[in-house]
Design goal:
The chain is α+β, with helices and mostly antiparallel strands. It contains 7 helices and 4 strands; from the N terminus they run ααααβββαβαα. The longest helix has about 30 residues. It comes from Streptomyces flavochromogenes.
Amino acid sequence: MARKANTGSADAANQGRLKQIALTYKMTRKADPKVGLVVAGVGIVVLGVLLAIGFLIGHPVYLGILGFVLALLAAAIVFGRRAERAAFGQMEGQPGAAAAVLQNVGRGWTTTPAVAMNRSQDVVHRAVGRAGIVLVAEGNPNRVKPLLAAEKKRMNRVVVDVPVTDIIVGDGEGQVPLKKVRTTMLKLPRVLTGPQVTAANDRLRAMGDLMSNMPLPKGPMPKGMRMPRGGKMR
């Protein structure tokens, strides 16, 4: 019975992965119509090269098997990169795009979306990890700079000993493109220990939620945003 249960769980997990891959492919193809041809072409080229080498050295079966494995690996890598590029292309310019990227930075980071916002929907998100505190702003550069300065001043009351890095998302000078935000954060030097990260997070939580005191942005609220408990629309 246990074996059947385990087998059923494994089959369900495999089906879930296949559905996820299929969904990712459909979404990617909308932004990148040639993704199927490119991925298939990469796989065929890798397999063909390895087979040719195999015939030349007299081991076509061995090199054929190796070529098949490497072809799948190469195709998966190319597909992953093009899918990621398509996803960033669809998210770019959308409210909350940077928050979505921060949520997938990786283990060791605690993300708090929208710690500061103005009426124009310029927003600042916060991430805390071994590299310290990273404030990621998206919106008009001239408007987000005061937001960043105000948030730093607010945090300095409780986390004076923690380094703070600010990132403004964009393609202009001194800005970081959305697709490079994760890479930029992962390249930051790790200067805090685990307990120091925990302490910084605890202090920031104790500082309170600023959302209830912020002016509400004009127009509809960004997707994924929720009114804080006790918050009232004015």
